[in-house]
Amino acid sequence: IVLTQSPATLSLSPGERATLSCGANQSVSNNYLAWYQQKPGLAPRLVIYDSSSRATGIPDRFSGRGSGTDFTLTITRLEAEDFAVYFCQQYGSAPLSFGGGTKVEI
Amino acid sequence: EVQLVESGGGLVQPGGSLRLSCAASGFTFSSFWMSWVRQAPGKGLEWVANIKQDGSEKYYVASMKGRFTISRDNAKNSLYLQMDSLRVEDTAMYYCARGRVLAVNWGQGTLVTVSS
Hints:
By secondary structure, chain A is mainly beta. Helix content of chain A is 0%, strand content 48%. In chain A, a hairpin with a 6-residue loop joins β4 (33-38) and β5 (45-49). Chain B is mainly β. In chain B, the strands form two sheets. In chain B, strands 2, 4, 5, 6, 9, 10 and 11 form a seven-stranded mixed β-sheet that branches. In chain B, strands 1-3-8-7 form a four-stranded antiparallel β-sheet, with no helix packed on it.
């Protein structure tokens, strides 16, 4: 499954709302779609799994939704620590695949 | 606290070999599937391989099957990745991750550079 993320870059200010998209070229089984956050020089961090469940320690300003081939990660009220690259990943079928990423920048 | 610490990366010539290690702590290592995920410089993520709790099942991305071998030692709380016949395109940061298909926890990564 090929995942396409848009936009490639999102330029926003702290306090604004971020909406990131992840589209699949075929349906993601059981909506097994995850989002990871990666800051420069650091390993990725799981943010959302099963399309809409927040990982441990993730604040509630992060939310995920979607099904089938269209998924969205929303960050309400961006904070300075949220500026990073976000990757989506499908784990419903082999081979596992990641999207190309969306950079959320100030 | 879950900790995953990778080691063993470095510079290797094309066709060469490297063995990566990942030391796990803060959880019952033998109870979890473990995986390796890689990221080429400035690029996206790619799942490499995963291994079942007892090592009885192993899965690889097609492009690495036959060249890479994932293994584990539950007595030492350690995960390994033996990489043979390395290619320039294998240059990447290699991350150890807890999970079978979902990387719940990640190590800091170890850099592998394949170059002549």
